[in-house]
Amino acid sequence: MKKGLVITGVAIVALAVGWYLLKPKSRESFTAKDFDMATVTKGSVAHVVTASGKIQPINKVSVGTQVSGIIEQVLVDYNDEVKEDQVLARLDTSVLQENLNDAKARLDLAISKKKISDLNYERLNKLYKDKLISKANLEEAEIDLETAKANVLSSQADYNKAERNFGYATITSPVSGTVISKEVEQGQTVAASLSTPTLFTIAEDLTKMQIEANIAEADIGVIKSDMPVSFTVDAYPNDKFNGKVQQIRLSPTEESNVVMYTVVIEVDNSSRKLLPGMTASVSIEVERAEDVPLLPAMVLQFKPSAALRKTTDEVPNPDMMKNEDVVYQFKNGRLKPIVITKGISDMANIEIKAGLEEGDQVILEASSGKRRGRK
């Protein structure tokens, strides 16, 4: 009998302990120490769009050759400064000279034949007027003369072509600038039968560069011409360079199912530190606010748990606008939701346009070890 009473007593105690451990906490069981708080402070914040892109010269010209042959001389090297019409290289002209001589000989022969045809036509025309030959004889002489004239024109065209090809053997720079690429060496054979081979690449002015940055379609709507840009390059990690948006290209590309637009950024490179091909990490400042109320953006991630919801007041305006959100204060043992109007955000901080004032405190997260504010 005593044994049964002991077992019954133990069971009752166990049930009481279990009920105590499992029962929901009352609102009085939460205190301000259960939460980490964030305070509204004054400061500056900027909406910045980030991207990356390659630094390139504004005008880059590829210099090629329209004739085939062996490179006889290369007169410039990498990084050389060149002037417009300066000779860069020369091809062997022996074959081209022979072609020119042959075209000149055929042109001279065609001119001589035309002179003979002229004389023959004049002679037969006089005989026809004296009625000493038939009209058929005169027409035959006229045809010979027209044929001779056509041969002269054809030979002249061949000569002009051979002369131009001979001139193409001297490769000159179309612009003043810097040689940034040299694709040939002396003695190398170049073939221009299918396409024009590139021999040199010349950057017209390396003191003025541009960045072609890829901007996602979600951000391209806020990018406008002349917006200020700052960027860094790996070669000078402690230096910040500046530029401005010069152009937004309308032809999109797609990368990993994300539509991207090319934004061209104009850069002053008077220091000549920036080199073609460098990767620039770009920040485009869209909007800035100075001396405004700020909160850590992390406060928007706090959501009351099931236990906390029992101590939470109703949201005063459940139908919120896109620029509105809810943060929570802890007052008198209860969570008080506050609807705020958001402004500019830099991902770390967010501008508070309405709902809170400087010095107000809101819940950032549940204290370490409790985390009751998380779902």
What does this protein structure show overall?
There is one protein chain. With 375 residues, the protein is an alpha+beta fold. The protein folds into four domains: 97 residues, conserved putative lor/sdh protein from methanococcus maripaludis s2 fold (Beta Barrel), CATH 2.40.420; 95 residues, Elongation Factor Tu (Ef-tu), domain 3 (Beta Barrel), CATH 2.40.30; 66 residues, OB fold (Dihydrolipoamide Acetyltransferase, E2P) (Beta Barrel); 75 residues, Orthogonal Bundle (Helix Hairpins). 26% of the residues lie in helices and 40% in strands. The chain is built from five helices and 20 strands. The strands form four sheets. Strands 2-11-15-13-12-16 form a six-stranded antiparallel beta barrel. A four-stranded antiparallel sheet has the order 3-10-8-5, with no helix packed on it. It has a four-stranded antiparallel sheet with strand order 7-6-4-9. Helix 2 packs antiparallel against helix 3. The radius of gyration is 43 Å and the shape is elongated. 21% of the residues are buried.
Write down the oligomeric state.
single chain
State the low-pLDDT regions, or none: 17-28, 371-375
Rounded Rg: 43 Å
First and last CA, distance:
49 Å
Q: Just give the CATH class of the largest domain.
A: Mainly Beta
Name the CATH architecture of the largest domain.
Beta Barrel
Q: How many structural domains?
A: 4
In the sheet with the most strands, the strands line up as 2-11-15-13-12-16
Averaged pLDDT, please? 86
Helix content: 25-40%
